[in-house]
Design goal:
By secondary structure, the chain is an alpha/beta fold. The chain has 2 domains: 61 residues, Double Stranded RNA Binding Domain (2-Layer Sandwich), CATH 3.30.160; 82 residues, Winged helix-like DNA-binding domain superfamily/Winged helix DNA-binding domain (Arc Repressor Mutant, subunit A). It has 5 helices and 6 strands. It has a 4-stranded mixed β-sheet, with helices on one face. A two-stranded parallel ribbon has the order 5-6. A hairpin with a 4-residue loop joins strand 2 and strand 3. The longest helix is centred in the middle third of the chain and has 14 residues.
Length: 163
Amino acid sequence: MTHLISTTYESPVGTLTLVAGDEGLRAVIWPDGRLDRVGLAGETLTPGGAPVLDATAGQLDEYFAGTRTTFEVPLDLHGTPFQLAAWRALAGIPYGETRTYGEQADRIGRPSAVRAIGAANGRNPVSIVLPCHRVIGSNGSLVGFGGGLEVKAALLELEREHA
């Protein structure tokens, strides 16, 4: 079992729980988020501080102020090889832009895995930092987001305003 440290972060889209693992940021949990969705089922979160949590909070402040377009914190991602590839592909979606699930599947060389991409994005443990909110349906609609579709729309609007 990993030693996980957590702290809360008051954001414009709700209170987020930031979780640090041994190697870096392990999770960003939405107010109504479940630990099992981000691969932390059965884990104990110890409230406290850690340099990666401070760095994440500072970079989130900059993101919400419209002055940061990418995150530069070490990540402690745990998932299947497919999930890890899907999550890493999220980092390649430019600030203020969107991609479809199909485009994300193409990017990782698995063009027929559109539904699996959706499932992997649904388990993205570090929302906002790895921007799954930038992935939309093939018809341009907002679908699936751990923070809710209103928050997804708000994040996309924030980025459009500052892009």
